[in-house]
Amino acid sequence: MQISVFPHGRRWVLWALLVVLVLSMLSTLVWLAGRYEVSQVQSRLERDAAEAVNDIRTALTRNAQSLQALQYADHSSVSWAQDAQALLREHREWLRLELRDPNLQVIKSSDTPFSAPVFNHFGRAIDQPEVVQACGVARRQSGPGYGASTYVPQHDGLGLEIMDVCLPVITEGQITGYTVASYALREMLVNMVATQLTRSQEVSFTEADGTRLAMHGGARRGSHVFIAKQLLDLPGHTMVLRMDSWRGAPNVFPNVLTALVTAMAIALVTVLIMLARDMRRRQRVELDLANALAFRKAMEDSLVTGLRARDSQGRITYVNPAFCEMVGFASKELVGCGIPAPYWPPEMVDEYGQRQAWRLAGNAPPREGVESVFMRKNGERFAVMIFEAPLINAVGEQTGWMGAVLDISEQRRVEELSRASQERLQATARLATVGEMASLLSHELNQPLAAISSYASGSINLLQEAARKDPQLAETLSLAIQRIAQQAQRAGKVIKSVHDFVRRRDQARETVKPRALLDDVMPLVILQARKLGVRVVVQCPADLPAVFCDRTMVEQVLLNLARNGMQAMADDTLHKVLTLGVRPAASSATSRWLEFTVADVGQGIAEGVSEKLFTPFFTTKAEGMGLGLSLCRTVVEQHGGFLSHKPNTPCGTVFSFTLPQS
Ligand code: ADP
Predict the structure, then answer these.
(1) Given a cut of 50, is residue 129 above it in pLDDT?
(2) Taking phi first (over 0 means left), then psi (-120 to 50 degrees means alpha), and beta for anything else, what does residue 580 get?
(3) Relative to the CA of 600, which ligand 1 atom is closest?
(4) How many whole angstroms from 368 Cα to the centroid of ligand 1?
(5) C-alpha span between 131 and 20 (Å, rounded)
(6) 581 CB within 6 A, ligand 1
(7) Spans of all domains in the chain
(8) What are phi and psi of 147, to 5 degrees?
């Protein structure tokens, strides 16, 4: 599982970029807020300056009207002087009022009562250019004309900036004189500009080049100066009104807006830092989670136990690789499957469905697990052990069942093997007992057989005497008794070979013609054949080579096979024929083997019986021991031969075994 989207280094670059962006955005905001603040102060100052100019202009207009009123008054010297004095008292900005004739000669004059006469010290020239200029303008415009300001030194070493205004006196359309008023520029600022404008700001008149002529206003403070300039455009003269504000330049937090922006910025940065921390914590947790998941997955993948989770409807929600491998279905084929699951054997669906319904009804499965049978994708059935436990989610609710599935087919196979080997062991033990019994019997029977043999020999001797009286009868009895002696010896040999066989001694092998072997067993075979009504056929070419074998044991094999063959032919068989044959082994053209066959036309061997034929103690007969074929095979295999059987045509069975040529 891949959690991290960006590589570590790139993520840091992104973070750095974000921080730089936020910081630059914040500083831009603060700077803009500062700029806004400055522009606000500046525009307010501009507004104030314009207002001041307006005030001055209004006052000047009003003053011009007052001067006009003075002209229209009576021109007798007393009255003019009184009126002038009254006006001067009202208007502190006027220093002096003059009445001049058309040639600008001063007729009358009156000085302000508030200060010493200004022109006393240096006098007032009649052709003062500023007055001439002002009156020229006044004459041309038939209205107030203003002259350029002049510096008038005073006796105390200081001086005053004075501006004259000239108003023509017009009588019946003719200029009959001029009224000239001298304005003190500073007093103009003091009296004409509203006090609230000058309380915290300095207002001054300057010339176009910036030379300050007069000033008035609040004390200086702060370092940054805001300056606003406004033109005072008067007929005949233009001045500049300059307004200086010492309002401090907006600092880092100039006002509420900036403070607000800054606070928000700080909050933003804080949130950013918190987010970064949270993200780092989340990443750590995600990494831990991914590690835990990877660990868990590795654990689940390495398990040999199949895991299967089902929801409360019985749908499969999860399977681990071991489970998929077990049932042979891919994970995506299983997840989402409901009932019946694809690995349920079709013949078990009903039973499993009931079990499932019982489980879904809320009944807990047994702790010790349930044994069941599953089906692989290829249809093979196999035994499993299922341990189920409730699946509880994070909030403690049961969402389904988690099952651990163990494939116990191998275990079952091993159990079966061990059971079979146990059975074999038991059979071997019984065989050993039989061997011991046979050994005991052979020992016990040897004595009566020896006795029979010696009695037979004695009887023959006695018969030789009797022969003299009845030679015919004696000969017959002698033959019979010789036969008894032969069979007794034969029985002794059989017992000895069994004894040797059981003791595992080296068998006494000899070279013997196959015909001789058949001849030896023939009397006993014919004896039984007669009893069962069987015809015996012998097929043995005369030129067959001799075989090297334990004669007695091979004869026992032939006898056993012949007896089995005859017993296999039931009473209702029409032509009961038992064929004993010998021929060179078909598969050994070059090697030297002879094949002995015993063929019957009986009921044949059923398929189930065929598998167990050579198993010790297996028999289908009521009186059978089930040891005959097992012993036959052992004997043949001890000679290096091979005992087999196949169906005869048209019916019955052919048993055959091979023996090495001498
Ligand atoms: P027993 O003869 O004591 O039953 P055997 O080992 O000789 O023991 O034979 C085992 C079984 O093999 C017999 O019970 C019989 O069912 C079967 N069998 C042996 N030979 C033949 C045959 N020629 N035809 C049919 N069945 C045979």
Answers:
(1) yes
(2) beta
(3) 23
(4) 47
(5) 67
(6) no
(7) 50-245, 304-407, 413-506, 509-660
(8) -105, 165
Reduced DSSP (H G I as helix, E B as strand, rest coil) percent helix, strand, coil of the chain, to 5: 50, 25, 30
The chain-wide mean pLDDT, for the chain, equals 84
Span from the CA of 425 to the centroid of ligand 1 (angstroms): 22
Q: pTM for the whole thing?
A: 0.43
Is the C-beta atom of 625 inside 6 A of ligand 1? yes
Instruction: Give 541's contacts (C-beta < 8 A, 6+ positions apart).
Output: 582, 583
In this prediction, residues 392-418 reach a mean pLDDT of: 87
Q: Is the pLDDT of residue 626 over 50?
A: yes
Residue 23 has what pLDDT? Answer: 81
Q: Which atom of ligand 1 is nearest to the CA of 560?
A: 7
Domain spanning 413-506, CATH architecture: Orthogonal Bundle (1.10)
CATH 3.30.450.20 fits 304-407, yes or no: yes
Average pLDDT of span 240-263: 71
Cβ(619) to ligand 1 under 6 A? yes
Q: Give CATH for domain 50-245.
A: 3.30.450.20
385, β-bridge pairs: 371, 406
What number of CA atoms fall less than 13 Å from residue 501's CA on the CB side? 27
Q: Do 509-660 and 413-506 have the same topology in CATH? A: no
Residue 583's pLDDT is 92
Q: What is the CA(601)–ligand 1 centre distance, in A? A: 14
Q: Is the pLDDT of residue 333 over 80?
A: yes
Distance from the CA of 572 to the center of ligand 1, in angstroms? Answer: 19
Q: How far is the CA of 609 from the centre of ligand 1 (A)?
A: 9
Distance of CA 589 to the CA centre of its chain: 72
| Residue minimizing CA distance to atom 11 of ligand 1 | 619
For residue 406, the SS3 value is strand
Those residues with Cβ within 8 angstroms of residue 255's Cβ, 6 or more apart along the chain or in another chain: 33, 37
Q: Is the CB of 651 under 6 A from ligand 1?
A: no
Cβ–Cβ under 8 Å, residues 630 and 614: yes
Architecture of the domain spanning 509-660: 2-Layer Sandwich (3.30)
564 alpha carbon – ligand 1 mean position (Å): 6
